[in-house]
Amino acid sequence: MSPDPFSRAEVRVDLDHLRHNLALLAGRAAASGAATMAVVKADAYGHGAVPVARAALEAGATWLGTCSLAEALTLRAAGIQASMLAWLDPADTDFTPAIEAGVDLGLSNAGELERAADAARRAGGRARVHLKIDTGLSRNGCPPHDWPALVKAAADDSAVEVVAIWSHLACADEPGHPSIDMQASRFEQAYEVTREAGLEPMRHLANSAATLTRPDLHFDLVRVGIAMYGLNPVPQPEDLRPVMTFRSSVVSTKRIAAGESVSYGLTWTADTDTTLALVPVGYADGVPRTLSGRLDVWLDGKRRPVVGRVCMDQIVVDCGDHQPEPGAEVVLFGTGEAGAPTAREWADKIGTIDYEIVTGMYRPRVVRSYAGQR
Questions:
Q1: Catalytic site residue 132?
Q2: What pLDDT is stored for residue 5 in this prediction?
Q3: What residue numbers does the annotated binding site cover?
């Protein structure tokens, strides 16, 4: 194991796995004539936006997607010049830096459009915008009844270039769900409105799940997020390789007698004499307390149960008659090879999604390192 010697734990990001996943997804898109946007919002789902963006571009992505303008500007500051889209910021955000840095803006209403146009006039350029239509997710996006007015306002403003229209699918991870075709139909209607206004924008609708299952919805550009990180959003198997491994190490071991109990509340009691290994990670480091009594780790070539409650700073592993050495690697989740736990397993056990697990690993005490960095 090779984390920083002062760290408690390490997130290891395998950029070769990421390149493999992105190439697979970009290949699916290219077969339909579509380009690929790598979504690197939320610090690339906890994997590190700058190195992930570079690896994704190396593997075939031509666009990068961020949630906030600040995220996009961080990529620009790192010297990344690919096409970028930022799509959700507070109402008082100044869009001038987007115009100056060549970052496209995702806009959903007349107020945002006006602010983007004003910023473009101040910056002496044009705002490149992607108009978002709400096709049924009922989250961000322009309601259909306001869409014609938004399109007309954008078409009539010389400070604005309408690069694309877009939307987001609610149930693409459930192939065959009727909402998918319903949203696709509404998206096509929105596109016709833009054409009637004299515009010829790109279209993008497909997320990771739709990229894998609905080639008819690839249009001009697909936006891949969770699948790029090796976590499969659809029921059928795909050749995706998990990118993140979360690991720590054994601090110390001790032998306890049958009848002794472990951790707060003494919720677990040893049936026989056993060896316990102490690992210096807890819920402050991204291990959900709700995994108490349901968590295994990979230690010395075998799954071993974490016993007692997950604490803020530590967990305790029951090793039976095995005696791990201090410093022995402990994999909390990773690729699943040889039977080790995965982020999906954690998510399933606590009733959430693997997105939440990996994005939650951006923690002050967890060191991030990279394999496959070029």
A1: no
A2: 53
A3: 139, 312
